[in-house]
Fold Sulfite reductase, subunit A.
Amino acid sequence: MGYKITAENFDSLLKNLSKEYKIYAPKRFPKQGRYSDTDIVRYDRVYSADEIVHDEKSDYAAKEALSPITETVLYFTDADYRESKVVDDRPMLVFARACDIHSIKRYDDIFLKNGGFEDSYYKRMREKTKFILMECPAKGWDTCFCASMGTGSADEYAFGVKFNGEEVLVETKDDAFNSYFAGNDEIDFLVTPVVENERVVRIPEINDKETQIAVKSLEMWKEFDKRCLMCGSCTVSCSTCTCFTTYDMNYSSDTNAGERRRINASCHVDGYTDMAGNHSFRKTGGDRMRFKVMHKIHDHKKRFKEHHMCVGCGRCDDKCPVFISFSTTVNKLAAEVDKLNGGNK
């Protein structure tokens, strides 16, 4: 079932939904971009349709709504500690692209299905979250390659929307929301998936340990020793990077009372692999790029079996200050692996 709703009515609908749900969507922050006088589009709580940026790809991913860049996990004193609590227990609705909905499945792998351990902080957010699918342009944006990764369509969403000028087309899937749309024009509408991108990526076929070892010493990685700034822009914007670190913050210098926070970490930045004894692994940009690429298009699927970690959102290409292209790198790797396998494709 579908509906055609005027922009004014859709705005009223969101305001009604916000009484029961916390709603998150891509939102514009003027003059807060990476460069002077530029905007940034990232996820934040919204209360009206006008706040939603629906005609651009957000600079940062929907994961921000469920897993903030920084969050407090516990409070401590000399003698005791307690876990942080969710201040607002209301369920969440998150406007997201198909690739971002798929990215949450990768988050589920890491935080809910990894070695029999469930991350309680992620789980409590995940269990109360539903998604609103936003239709993308026919071929996505210029850096997208979701079709190559099989993430151009999604199934797990409450309802889908297409912003169409002065009206909004809605596809409903969750009957719990039907009452919000009552009284609007009923139409036949389904969100159109992305089945083709301008950018095509071929995943390398790494089927044995020998090939995997050989990939580590490929000359192509040395290019990034000079090019990569190791700034972490790609991983912070990535919709599937899950790494974090923790640190304790004392409230004052003369007390042991404080809080423990976890904050996003990156395999591209210095300090990520530091160990006791002043040891560190993957010190060069090439080593770090190789580690990230292999994790995204080989290691995750090898471990969890179902899908690659990368969902083809292209944000890493968008954010790199020196224009390193992840998608181009994967295609180069595929060509190199063909050679290792004894032929060219």
